[in-house]
Amino acid sequence: MSYESGDFDRVVRFDSRLLGSVDNAPHINTGPTPMGAAGRPQLSLVPDQIDVAPATEDDQWQERALCAQTDPEAFFPEKGGSTREAKRICQGCEVKDACLEYALAHDERFGIWGGLSERERRRLKRGII
């Protein structure tokens, strides 16, 4: 049977019991809703305030990384592309070890991190390097 003809006799009904109850959910008062044209509520897609987690000591190495000051495309080359330039930059970077530790801990699968490619990091994890 094709999609166009449809089999509307076998429609699966949504079971609202799967949603659970909201009767006991706490109400959070967010203040008055600004009114827009024609007396409709004016809703914003952008929050008034964005909560940004403060940088931790673990993340501060990223600010000192040389790659943050260069073209990111060098560190994420196309498949088969050269990694030479990125690795050269990594060799002179003071946070190379922290970068590699981060990549290994977060299972980064793309790009050059700590002077190693994805393949080299996989080998390092397996103990081949």
TrEMBL record:
Binds 1 [4Fe-4S] cluster per subunit. Following nitrosylation of the [4Fe-4S] cluster binds 1 [4Fe-8(NO)] cluster per subunit. GO terms for cellular component: cytoplasm. Upon Fe-S cluster removal intramolecular disulfide bonds are formed. Keywords: 4Fe-4S, Cytoplasm, Disulfide bond, DNA-binding, Iron, Iron-sulfur, Metal-binding, Transcription, Transcription regulation. InterPro entries: 4FE4S_WBL, Whib. It comes from the Bacteria. One of its GO terms (biological process) is cell redox homeostasis. The keyword Secreted does not apply. GO terms for molecular function: 4 iron, 4 sulfur cluster binding; dinitrosyl-iron complex binding; DNA binding; metal ion binding; protein-disulfide reductase [NAD(P)H] activity. Its cofactor is [4Fe-4S] cluster. Pfam families: Whib. It is found in: Cytoplasm. [4Fe-4S] cluster binds at residues 67, 90, 93, 99. Acts as a transcriptional regulator. Probably redox-responsive. The apo- but not holo-form probably binds DNA. Belongs to the WhiB family. This is Transcriptional regulator WhiB.
